[in-house]
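cron nightly-structures :: item 1 of 1
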Amino acid sequence: MTLASPRIINIADLRAAARARLPNVVFDYLDGAAEKETTLRDNEAAFDEVFFRPRLALKIPKVDLSTRVLGVDVALPLLLAPIGLSRMMHPRGELAAAAGAARAGTGYILSTVSGYPLEAVIGENQNSFFQLYLMGGREVSERTIARAKKAGYKGLFVTIDTPVAGLREKDFRNGMAALMGRNPLPKLKYLPEILSHPRWLAGFLMDGGMPSMPNAVGDSGPLRTTDVSTALESAAVCWDDLGWIRQAWGGPIVIKGIHAADDARRAVDEGCAGVVVSNHGGRQLDGVAGSLRVLPSVVAAVGGQCEVLCDGGIRRGADIAKALALGAKAVLIGRAYAYGMAAVGDAGVDRALEILKSDLVRTLKLLGCDSVRKLDRSNVSLRPGFAVD
């Protein structure tokens, strides 16, 4: 199967292509979530409880998908979300994601837990943003912020929903710790599964194996991927941290991981330029509602005083239209592009964005709406009990 095949018509097809290429340990890291994966499922299921209300008998020869997000003009109402350890999924990893976003005319958000230096990534896409974990403590983070500022990143996304790493049970069963570790002996148990995916293994080994984290550099060098969980637990973000982060950054700050109206209001009071309604793709606290259910209450809470983005469960262009109709300025997509990237790198990212763009154009034409900026609550109806306060 190639990405040019008529069989690759939606994001689920890209997921299948990624599943075929990756060993279980890597695919489940990308595809899985915390504990029972209730939140992961609800992120997608929530979209099925929002129904379109089309205006018909209208001529819509073309639609305008462009908008402005955090001061950046984009051709699509989406940004590519930060995904840690992307280089493990494909040797081009974050470079492929950033470059694909640039070709589509939109922005990319680089994770602190990335395998490429932030300076190299912004070389692929000048409209890039940086996602910050306080890994290594304040001093290390201040150095990272200074590098991102000097490199020209457009904004800083501060993730607040990772005081500890969520319990992603598939990672334990599949041997993720063994793959990330330096000791070869624990890897032996999982060797047959890895050897059964020679194309991935060849790329992984030629790329040097598990990369370090060049964007979290302490006195002894880059933090290792084996230290991620410990580093997160020792550097949870608190509201009080925004003072020194704002002073160090001096530009727009977006809070990622908002799931309650009170926290959204606090972000506004702290002077943030935006918030991302997100549950980390269901990878942190399992059992919270899908992001789309929370979106209306967050939009109401901020009262237009900052931009609201939405992340979680977006697999089709119709999902994007529903999020915009409920008040999001734009969306973040994660797994949707990562499946393509994991399958074939740059071409896979391109295909994922082509699919979503085509979906969105078709959806707007069928809705009788000629611009994503005109989508609002009049375009949808909600199943009773849909929204979560």
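cron nightly-structures :: done
The chain has a mean pLDDT of 93.
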